[in-house]
Design a protein that fits this description.
There is one protein chain. The protein has 349 residues and is of the alpha/beta class. It has a single domain, classed as Rossmann fold (3-Layer(aba) Sandwich). The chain has helices spanning 3-15, 35-51, 64-70, 109-113, 116-136, 176-195, 219-230, 248-261, 279-290, 306-309, 320-324, 333-345; strands at residues 26-30, 56-61, 80-84, 99-102, 141-145, 199-204, 206-208, 232-235, 242-247, 267-270, 276-278, 295-298, 314-315. A 7-stranded parallel beta sheet has the order 3-2-1-4-5-6-10, sandwiched between helices. Strands 7, 9, 11 and 13 form a 4-stranded mixed beta sheet that branches. Helix 3 (64-70) links the parallel strand 2 and strand 3. Helix 5 packs parallel to helix 6. It is globular and about 55 Å long. The protein starts with a helix and ends with a helix.
Amino acid sequence: MKNIIQEDIEKLLAERHDLERLDHQTILISGANSFLMSYFIYLVLEYDQRTHSDIKILALCRDQKKAKTQFAAYLEDPHFSLLLQDVRDPVSWGGEIDICIHAASPVGSESRWEKSLETFEANLFGCKNLLELAREKHSRRFMLISSVDVYGDCPVQGRRKETDTGVLDWTYVRNAYSLGKRAAETLCSFYYTLYGMPCVTVRPVQIYGPGVSLTDGRLHGDFVRQLQTQNQIVLKSDGSALRSFMYISDATHALLDVLLYGKAGERYNICDEAGECSVKELAELYAKRWGNGAGVVFDWSTRNTPEVKDAISVVTGDSGKLRELGWKSRTDLNEGIQRTLTYYTCGDR
């Protein structure tokens, strides 16, 4: 781990007083290489190493090179194992699995077009494979990492609640990610109803922080990359779209709160009302924190591209159910952006 990430993990360790609930359990995580799940894995392994709590992490991922870089500090830890395979293939494990977390999915703009079928299959077939494994192992908990994208174009005004539904064109290839997440949620509902599988589903908003990809087309990474390469941020739209953003350590708290205290069969938004702003406001915050005379400009030639035309104007969530579990916001947008930029500018990578 690098300095900024280490600071976040140390703070999480100091703030969590309930990690003993994971003692002596084996946790299988698909998509373990992902930005969101890496923090979760760092936290659990650091806790286990310091307390000798006999928690085992099975990190399922496809990219061996990335995994060995991401988890270099833990490769010799006997409580950490890499399972290198595609989650679309059946998953087997000889020992017990107490907790199963399905987080595997291609993300970013590439997954919308070039990897649309792979994205849909990873979400749906991957979820099916892990649900079957969890049922075979009589797992105590199954967590699906879904997305606020499942709401689609929701007619309800204001922040999305877990009971809200919206329109998604199921024939439009670019909706592969959103539809795959919806299908996985449906599967979890079946397994909960038919087999009593203790499933919980989380729907994260846009999560950002140290380690976020700079190349997958999502806002925070794209803004950092543009500032690094051209000292400005170029927006493809007028920037009026409203979004909700959450810093990675707050999201890690949220995952733990749902995992440990969420009600089986329920869905929970992972969002923070305090992290809401327009795309233009977000860009201006990044430019201001970056300094060096950086600014925000607009490229109107891109306004008719699918990523601009298809963008939903408001994507924000209601965190009421999450807060009922004890979650609270800890890192505001300004602080989170500063920590993210520090990671990418101070040799912390």
